[in-house]
Amino acid sequence: MAERDVGPGGGRDAPLAMSREAFAAAAHELVDVVTDFLFTLSARPVTPDESPAELGGILGAEARLPEAGTEAGVLLRAAAGLLFDHSLFNGHPRFFGYITASPAPIGILGDFLAAAINANVGAWRLAPMASEIEAQTVRWLAELVGFPTDCGGLLASGGNMANTIALLAARKRAADWDLRKEGVAAQGAKRLRVYTSRETHTWIQKATDLIGLGTDAICWLPTDDEGRMDPEALRGALAEGRANGDVPVAVVATAGSVSTGAVDPLYAIAAICAEHDAWLHVDGAYGGFAAAVPGTPADLGAIGLADSVALDPHKWLYAPLEAGAVLVRDRERLREAFSYHPPYYHFGQEATNYVDFGPQNSRGFRALKVWLALRQVGRAGYVQMIGDDIRLAQTLAALVRQEAELELFTQYLSITTFRYVPQDLAEAPRGEAIERYLDRLNEALLDRIQRSGQAFVSNAIVRGRYVLRPCVVNFNSTPEDVAALVELVVELGGVIDRTLRSRRAERIDRF
Q: How far apart are CA 396 and CA 403, in angstroms?
């Protein structure tokens, strides 16, 4: 059959079709515009101070669906302008907010390539090479964190879904009745429980809700002063649950808490889980990849003892959103939880159909951007970059200690928490009234920092107090950027305190 030089939809009069020349022109122009954006990002505000109403007006949010179309190049230029002028940029070197990383340039290009192939990585037949790339990516992620490389696993949208997939596999293993047919409320079913600490991310509530256990199935465990799960409390809770006829679905431990970056005592928890035949799941969405870095908490070495682990390449592997991952020690546990088909063989070998290992049928090619970055920089590159982020957070902590008006709370992994304390209050006895004032002051300070466009941080509640929480997962950030953050906090903190000072004495006297 003769070859035809026909592009997407070019074989018929399809409105979405583009000629080779038109597609190339629009693509090249967009690449140039994106390149200019990426290499001038540090000169832009981290985020604009704009309201939803203002953005709606700029967008023309009330406009009706257009009857006729617009030329692609015009649309792309307009869309780029809207996004570049009215977005929060997590790749900005002074973005220290949520645990969302600066996107790797090769990941940006990888998403472009993946969209061109448009593989449905739910079935091997539909995405043969993409499926094999995902399988290799899963093995490499496991190797990076010290997990068995013959595990099962797949890429997911993020930490919430990765954790939920693992919990579903654990639920199937825990039940001694036909859970898939009869559900968790089957006649004679035992009560299923999940054991975790209060520092666990809120995915745990969503997951227990979604998989039918209900949030009352969570047994909340106390933590120590560092926010780490108390192993003896876990041992006692498991024993009490067994005595009451409860069945543990999983013990969920955290490798890098969202609030402070604290790592649970994973070795001790793993030993207790082995004693009680309880599934150990490690939420390593933030801190799991730090296991590859020398000098990080020794307990990260126990990730390899878990039954499952959740990871987020769009955090500390700097993949563009979305890219989460779940690893399960026993590959068959995933198949048992999700598959309704026998294993699929092709060319005499078992082929991986990811529809049988997770909840999605249609799956995008998330693995490509992660695979490309792993190949571009290797283990050594990630060890360097993650280590650099941790050292920047430690530098920030050191700068905070040097400032008389800043009070350091915690420093774990790449998260540093602290607050602004006016010098006169730093030297005064701390009653509850003053503490409440400091909470209010720092809450107002956070809002002012975020609205300033000069930096972006988030907050945490540590030991009952409201604190600022910069987190460094950003290969664009430098020591100069963290120093500028400290200067900004001191400057704006003083401005806000002076604004509130006239009312402060009255407020303190009231309590």
A: 11
For residues 321 and 395, state if they share a domain: no
Residue-number span of the structural domain to which 43 is assigned? 20-89
Instruction: Please say whether the beta carbons of 413 and 261 come within 8 A.
Output: yes
pLDDT in tens, the chain (511 residues): 445 555 665 567 899 999 999 999 999 999 999 999 999 999 999 999 999 999 999 999 999 999 999 999 999 999 999 999 999 999 999 999 989 999 999 999 999 999 999 999 999 999 999 999 999 999 999 999 999 999 999 999 999 999 999 999 999 999 988 888 898 888 888 999 999 999 999 999 999 999 999 999 999 999 999 999 999 999 999 999 999 999 999 999 999 999 999 999 999 999 999 999 999 999 999 999 999 999 999 999 999 999 999 999 999 999 999 999 999 999 999 999 999 987 777 767 788 999 999 999 999 999 999 999 999 999 999 999 999 999 999 999 999 999 999 999 999 999 999 999 999 998 878 889 899 999 999 999 999 999 999 999 999 999 999 999 999 999 999 999 999 999 999 999 999 999 988 765 555 555 4
- Do 382 and 475 contact (CB within 8 A), yes or no? no
Closest CA to 316 of 248, 245, 251, 390: 390
Structural domain includes residue 173: yes
Identify whether residues 330 and 204 lie together within a single domain.
Answer: yes
Q: Name every residue whose Cβ is closer than 8 Å to that of residue 353 and which is 6 or more positions away in sequence.
A: 122, 123, 124, 131, 341, 344
Number of domains into which the chain is organized: 3
Question: Please, is 493 exposed, middle or buried when counting C-beta atoms within 10 Å of its C-beta (0-12, 13-18, 19+)?
Answer: buried
Q: The CATH number of the domain where 155 resides is what? A: 3.40.640.10
List, in order, residues 6 or more apart from 384 with CB less than 8 Å away. Answer: none
CATH of the domain at 501: 3.90.1150.170
Would you tell me how many other CB atoms lie within 10 Å of the CB of residue 257? 28
Burial (CB < 10 A; 0-12, 13-18, 19+), residue 259, is buried
Whether 361 and 393 share a structural domain? no
Has residue 11 been placed in a domain? no
Please indicate, yes or no, whether residues 481 and 361 belong to a single structural domain of this protein: no
